[in-house]
Amino acid sequence: MNTAGQFANQVVLVTGASRGIGRTTALAFAAQGAAVALVSTAADRAKRVAEEISAAGGRALPLVGDVAVEADVRRFIAQAESTLGPLNVLVNNAGVTGPTAPVTEMPLADWDRTIAVNLTGPFLCAREALRLALARAKSSGSPPALRSIVNISSIAGKISYPYRTPYASSKWGLIGLTLTLAEEAGRAGIRVNCICPGPVQGKMLDSVMAARAQAMGRPLEEVRKQFLGLTMLKRLVKNEDVAALVLFLASDAAANITGQAIDVTGGMAQMRE
After folding, report:
1. Residue 112's domain is classified under what CATH number?
2. pLDDT of 228-239, one tens digit each?
3. In the chain, N or C terminus with fewer CB closer than 10 Å?
4. Burial label, 253 (beta-carbon count in 10 A; 0-12, 13-18, 19+)
């Protein structure tokens, strides 16, 4: 790992860090010298990512918790700060895909869980991180250690997304949360942005496409072609594409970027039935 990288001596907490975008982002921060707290509901996967970082000479702390549970959030942020130091960057990446069904057939429990993880979770994490950072800054008279919060929303937070009501609603809400946090936190010099990925290749997207094909009574291959066809570049997004933008937004190069919802979609503009 690069101990002289652009995030050397910084502490970064990534939720949903054990796979997909979260894992790739955590590895990228560690490669640039950051000490990374890895939050996941899966202890074994978080431990594996931490071991991967440690084996490369980096510093990582695996933490187990559910971002939708207030007590968990308070605990894992406290653990991260007591072990690694005050947070400099928070990446709210944890999320669930939620159900795929017409709204008339949507179970309330599925709606509640999707909103809880995808929207309430980032709220709880940001609230706790900001509370600690601002209290510490007030006590010391120094600027807050926390400099950047990056939320992972989705292009589903900007478009219509039939059969995916809970997911789309949570991601629309996350953009609104980002803008509000940016306004409030900006007074202390803390920047808040969100990223709106398009279809990201991997197991999560595979499960979404399979569920969509079943719900709509269409062949899976037809649904795959639909997703690709909706992008201008006719290709899926990679985890690395999103991670690269996370690091940019958390860096000094983005010192005057806040309150933004930036797409990484390959040019995806809309979703139809």
Report:
1. 3.40.50.720
2. 778 888 888 999
3. C
4. exposed
